[in-house]
Design a protein that fits this description.
Length: 162
């Protein structure tokens, strides 16, 4: 009969093993992150992101509720019609999210809207200047989860150039 040889392989020299201390701090980090995610889920707000839920994605709209959006509108020289403002870094020095994040302050102090007009004039000197800026809240009303044709616009803040 033949003999069976069992070979034991030794780890090669290029295998890096984690020390007990390294495993310990990795475990501690996992426990801390898990605690932050659980606390954020239970009591966190948007400012806890990424440990708390981002409410924009965490809540559902009731089937007979409304979908709300905000927009910034402007009037330019010589045109009384309101136009939707381009909220981009090249137009006002800020992106849309940065402007929308300041809507509560702009509502409390409408003169802040003048800074958007000033920024636009500096960044686009050849474009017609903005003579008025306003923040409009738009609600699209739903019935059984479908827009029913009714909308409601509310001006939250308005600034007019002196």
């Amino acid at each position: 009969m033949g003999t069976t040889t069992v070979s034991q392989t030794q780890p090669s020299d290029d295998v890096i093993r984690v020390s007990p201390a390294g495993r310990g701090w990795r475990l501690l980090l996992c426990l801390v992150l898990t605690a932050l995610f659980l606390a954020g889920t239970a009591v966190g707000q948007d400012d806890w992101w990424p440990f708390g839920p981002w409410r924009m994605f965490a809540n559902a709209t009731p089937p007979s509720g409304s979908v709300i959006s905000l927009r910034v509108e402007v009037q330019v020289d010589g045109d009384p019609a309101w136009q939707i403002a381009p909220l981009t870094p090249s137009a006002v020095g800020l992106n849309r999210a940065e402007v929308e994040g300041r809507i509560p302050q702009m509502t409390a102090r409408p003169a802040m809207l003048g800074t958007l007009a000033d920024s636009h004039a500096r960044l686009r000197p050849k474009a017609p200047p903005w003579r008025a800026v306003r923040v409009v809240r738009n609600e699209v009303l739903l019935t059984d989860g479908v827009p029913n044709g009714a909308t409601r616009d509310t001006v939250l803040a308005q600034w007019t150039a002196p």
